[in-house]
Amino acid sequence: MVSFFSRLKSLTSPYLYWLLLLHFIYLYNIHVTESMGGFYFNFKGISLILASFIPVISLFYSINFCLNRYPKGVILGNISLLFFYGLLAGYHFHARTQFIWDMFIDNVGNALYLESVIYMWNSIDKEVFVYFLVFVGIFIFMQWRYRSITRFCGKITTAWPPLIALGVYSLCLVTTIPTYDPVSGFLKSMVVYYFKSSVSVNYEPGTYPLLTTDQSRFDYFNFPKSISKKPNIFLIVVESLNQSIINKNTDKGEEITPFLNKLSKSSLVVPQFYANSIQSARGHVSIFLSLMPSIANKITTQFSDLTVLSTADVMKKNGYKSVLFHAYKLDGFDNTEVFFRDRGFQMETVGSYIKQEEDAPYLWRSWGPEDNVFFKRFFDFFDRNQSDNTPGFYSLITVASHFPFSSVPEHRRLLFKNPSSIHEEYANSLHLVDRGIAVFFDELKKRNLDQSSIVIITSDHTIPMGEHGIYHQEVGYFEESFRIPLYIHWPEGIKPQVIEEPYSQMDITPTIFDLIDAEVPQHAFMGRSIFSKNISPVYLIQPYGKHFSVIKWPYKFIWHERSRDLTVYDLVNDPKETKNIVAGISEEDINSFKQDLTSIYRNQLLYTHNTVYKP
What we know:
Layout: H1 2-10, H2 15-33, H3 43-51, H4 53-66, H5 71-95, H6 101-107, H7 114-121, H8 127-146, H9 160-174, H10 182-195, E1 233-238, H11 258-263, E2 268-269, E3 273-274, H12 280-289, H13 299-302, H14 311-317, E4 321-326, H15 336-341, E5 346-349, H16 356-359, H17 371-384, E6 392-397, H18 422-446, E7 454-459, E8 487-489, E9 497-498, E10 503-504, H19 508-515, E11 538-542, E12 547-552, E13 555-560, E14 565-570, H20 587-609
Parallel strand pairs: 1-6, 1-7, 2-9, 3-10, 4-5, 4-6
Antiparallel strand pairs: 2-8, 7-8, 11-12, 12-13, 13-14
């Protein structure tokens, strides 16, 4: 044993100790921010801290032993290790969660879009790059002055040292040895993604458990007999619109969303309304297919051949044309254009309707125009395509209020000229959204359609604003990560009212069918009309943090797949979600939640086997 360590020491670069110092600094920051739950200085906590050095050491030896015969390769390998360590640590410190394989595989197809690059850059703590440069500087100095890396090259003459190092590191990835360093955490997430599953589901391949002819979920609203003509339907899906911003004022008393505040008094509103997940692509699936979001992979990309019945399919059978009108250039992003076009939607973008000179002050975002211009140009499209009397189902997808909110230029910062926080930046952005929606209603009124049209306003997802110390979609699982508004404005058909029961994006399509008294064929829609007044489970999917929640009012059950922990909050008595009451929940309620959790995993199998819907 002594000879083994003596031999190992003779092959070890002193730079390993600097790498271990970097890992110690990383662990210290984790402890201070408690971004991984925190460490505690008891026996267990200290043991976990010490054990987390094992994968770092074995990764270092794996790189240096495997490249031992190539001096330049050893230098490049160590600098690359430092770079990826720093890059992933920077993401962790900013997002408060490690970057994992799930995030990479879901979004790699969008990585080269300019706005994606901006998003990624704004998701990294820039101070980490200072650490990276310092440690690279130390590395270069040690190599230049003492040949601290390359002087060990050529000393390994057999395959055993690299095999042993790789074997130890592989054990770290596939066992319960803690991998708190960001590089090993990322690689371990690949193992979990492909080889490990937490819940076993009884599912017989080839069956279609969602398929039904049940019409009851669309049969609650009484269509007004006084209305003889089918109404146009306008569904506005706002980018990143949080419920919490509605009726909120600045410190100076200015309303952030004055138009929406006023609109709520003449509309049907649902205060307890939820996005089913945390990304646009997942939100669009819930809205336009009335399906639960996938817990792994995006349906529009990885399950692009999925056979489904869409909102457009049913609307066509009921005499409607369906248009998805986007503020951004689709250009293959999330495969949105192809996926929804193949499922009955006419896909349109605002680009060809932009008036460059007139609209120039509002074209400050590369993805698409400010909302006021977007809505004006939509009506240009609308006017050109009204040659027949076919009613339309128009979905308007905005983009200007996408993160980062600092993108709003100074001349369009109408509330805070020099914002000092993300909250003020967000207020500036959403104030422009509010003004844009006011423009939409003005344009509707110009065409005498404001009384007869159904206008639905909601969001694709939220952006948490630090209510629980979280500012990133990829990690949040509290209410602020899912709560969005829902307005339904139809003066001729619906009286202003508040529906207190909880509903979600999955319920928008069934509600539309209910409003127009649609005939719905055999289907696989999971939602139900908001007019049903039934208390049914609301499913919330956090695919990256792996928190799967079910709201069974007033309780919110949260299952964390990785730790296998169950948390329960009472949303009526504890709306800020501060007290876990799982110990006081009855066994009957726990078993009911387990059935709902099984449904979440079963649905994923339906997507995998393409057994959601059969024509």
